[in-house]
Task: structure prediction
Amino acid sequence: MIAVLIEHREAQIKDISFEMLTLAHQIANTQKQEVSCIILSDKCQPFADAVKNYCHNIICVENDLLNNFNNQIYLPILEKIITETKPTLTMIGHTGFGTDLAPYLSTKLSMPLLTDIFDVELSPDRLLIRRQMYGGKITAEIISKKLPAMVTVRTGSFEKILTSSSAIKGLNANITNVSFDIDQSILEKSKFLEYGEVPTTGIDITKSDVLVAVGRGIKEQKNLAVIEKFAEDIGGTLACTRPIIDAGWLPKDRQVGSSGKTVKPKVYIALGISGAFQHISGMKSAETIIAVNKDAEAPIFSVAHFGVVGDLLKIVPMLANRIKELKG
Amino acid sequence: MDIIVCLKMVPDTSETEVRVDSTGKNILKVRLINTTNEADNYALETALLLKEKHGGTVTLISLGAQNVDEVLKMGLAKGADRAIRLTDGLFETGDAWTRTYALYQAISKNKFDLILTGCIASDDGNSQIGPSLAALLNIPSAAYVTKVEMLDNTKAKIDRELEGGILERKEISLPAVLTIQTGINTPRYPSIIGIKRAGSKPLDVFDAAKLNIDPKIIESLTELQQMYNPKVEAKAQFISGSDDEISEKLATLIREKAGL
Amino acid sequence: MGIITITKEIRDAIIELGGTDAYKCYQCGMCTALCPWFQVEKVSFLVNRIPHNVKLGNVMASEDKKVIEKEVEELFRCVGCDNCLEYCPRGVNIGDIVRAIRRILIDYEALPKTLKDITTKIYSSGNPQGDSADKRNNWAKKLNVPLYSPELEYAYFPCCIPAYDAQVKRVAESTTKILKATNSLFGVVKDDVWCCCEAIRNFGAEKIFQEIAKNNISALDKAKVKKMIVTSPHCYTTYKNEYPELGSTIEIIHTTQIFAQLITNRKLKPTKPVVKKVVYHDPCTLGRQNNIYDEPRSVLKSIPGLELVEFENFNRKDSMCCGAGSGGLWLDWQKGERMSDIRVKQAVDTGADILAVACPYCLIMFEDSVKTMNLNLEVKDISEILAESI
Ligand SMILES: Cc1cc2nc3c(=O)[nH]c(=O)nc-3n(C[C@H](O)[C@H](O)[C@H](O)COP(=O)(O)OP(=O)(O)OC[C@H]3O[C@@H](n4cnc5c(N)ncnc54)[C@H](O)[C@@H]3O)c2cc1C
Ligand code: SF4
Ligand code: SF4
Result:
């Protein structure tokens, strides 16, 4: 059995849950194993409904104290479930929740843990995973010396599972409700208070997956608004070159480059940036770099993966509309 | 308040190419400069700020050969009180489990209210040791901490970073393990007076025998098979057409790459 | 309070690493007044406090985080321009004192992050850009410049910045054009010769400087290089004045020297007029540090149509630093705190169309200032202007 811990926050199931289910089925198919979901919540039903066509079994633990994630409360429950059901592999998201929980849990269970993985190969007696090291500059293949084992799965590494997938056609999971008496004294050790928002002044461009960076090519401060809106629409954060800071159009913490921040987002969109070395040194490790510049010779194209030679002031508004259409 | 900070020495690869050596199981260590793991520096600063505010001591602990003393001495120069280095061939060939267990054995012989580690090591990227250590010590833990505020001698209020600009705020009782996220503070520079005094602060070295560690217990649970450089995309592919076509192609591309 | 005590351990450590000049200082304050920072209104950089504080051992002696942070910022302000040395009545080399202090700090990573990163990049790949070592000569391959071999007269080393940076490689290209036009026999040095490490030595990375400098010397030795032409006066001063201590014997020639020589020998005759008013900026490393003032000017004067003007007051040995020395190229001072902004204003005041430079660092600093200040001024390397004229 492959177990997947369903992740949810404020009544929303998280995408990573569906991504892990895709991976779980990939493995389960070759191994003729079953996939089980574990749901811990104050209301399990909606989550069970969301995943019941994508797995063979669902184990639900319902308790008011499980309305919000709390690693210390999750621990004894998962320890018990895993010890009793003995999954070959347990999957947890490599997320704010997963990283807070998995190492603790695996240690309690004396189980090997492989974190932040993006690929798995499982055979009856062997687990091999792939993960990145050295900030993504190296890919490593690591085996677990024993089974059962646990992994935390990198977000966005797998497609979300779809009903149409032939592998899982006709699934309708058995639901098992497990009751568990939570020892109230745990709250003394670790108590959830609330969710908060990261203060906007403290925006950290190094932590954003998508950056929309502007340079002097935007010409005037008033053009910033369109681009800011566009960044927001694609779930990105605004960054810039030093002259934009000098002009006082954006605060210093948005500067990318040798004397600003070094960033490594999934996508870096460089708009009207020439590509001075001080700038490039701060962004060249981005996974995908898209540059728009009216000068075909601009050095930024030497590090970009995709380039557009053209006027950003014309292209960006049109692009923003397209994105809106795509998002429907 | 007595605080223990785990520091790791790592090769600074943030600005360099990383190549694999001939065994295929390690990176080529030549021409790399060793440094304190970035997140650990923030953990150390958190400890020093807490000490300035609430008094107490800061003890540093690290694993590795003698060159790791550089990292420990830097921590001492910044204001930590003493340092411990665990060294043994067994530790060095081990995995996260091995290292956690060694740290556990050393730490459990000390008095402490708080253990701080970095949230991630820039070399292996495991994010494991802090919470695993807490499990062995049977105390609560919190990962990716971005704020620490003492409520009293036995309780702290903390923020943890989640995805999408959201924080989880919670109360945790001490002793506890917190893994500290980068950016929580601004790590200080050591002063020259600190550097000069670091030499006379205690730095103790222990091996597996001295810690009474049974080699069987610390055997790795995982094994690295091979390493390689992921292949990189070819350079600039130009997207052309009318402005309208360009924006359409770009939109599709962004949707795919940004995972909208 | 009020009583000054001497912190001997700090004083002794700095003296030992090369700060002995501190004892010569008699606190006249000339250095503070002559330091280019004195012209930057926002900044108060009291240079004469440095030798004074070294004598007292009062350098980074506090344990207060904020105080230390400020002190580190101060200690990395000195760009090593030697303007103070030129006029100090006691011959105090502030650059040496500051370098000694930085050498203590760097082992403990007490330096701005950008400088730490530059050190790592140079150590691992041999250039401050952190690009692969084997891409160093890509620019030369495109222009069919051969690798240096002993039957060629000169080896050419363009400095890491023109070699790797798309915006500055034009300097290496125009130098190549000129050398080819005169049938000079030259080849580019192999990519196992790395950054000269002048900058990182000045900001304290002594061990890395030593290691790479020795590698460079033996690589040049192996390639049997006898005479080497360099574009950067930073390479020039390092190879000329510092590498010999480590065993280097090669003859080093700055591009402006070889250009001037070719023109004097009539091997090169600039013919196409460049009808422009040009002001020449003396780089610290070429002028004050090596007394090369005339060759660059004679090259410019030989160009028909070109009118050469001088900076008012701040020319030749009084030239004002662009701000890039000792790591300044990578340190980002806030707008309003940049020496290069002041210098380009001075250039505009001369009425010049072109600010001519003889150093890739100056080129970058001034181009950046001209851009951010929206000035009507071109910044060009002498090689570019000369190449236009042939
Ligand atoms: C010590 C020092 C440290 C520095 N540190 C940094 C740093 O950390 N980060 C940093 O970014 N810079 C830094 N710089 C500045 C750097 O040298 C460059 O000046 C800067 O990066 C250039 O910014 P830019 O690309 O926005 O402007 P420019 O170089 O002026 O480029 C503007 C670009 O926009 C294009 N463009 C114009 N109009 C349009 C249009 N309508 N549509 C599309 N494209 C258009 C142009 O073709 C041009 O390529 C530093 C400089 C110094 C001296
Ligand atoms: S000019 Fe020389 S003698 Fe005068 S204060 Fe400066 S260093 Fe001292
Ligand atoms: S060397 Fe130049 S920058 Fe340094 S103190 Fe002297 S005048 Fe100032």
Remarks:
- Residues C 25-31, 48, 51, 84, 88-90, 92 surround iron/sulfur cluster (ligand 2) (CB under 6 Å).
- The first helix of chain A runs from residue 15 to 31.
- Chain A has a mean pLDDT of 91.
- Chain A touches chain C through 17 residues (CB under 8 Å).
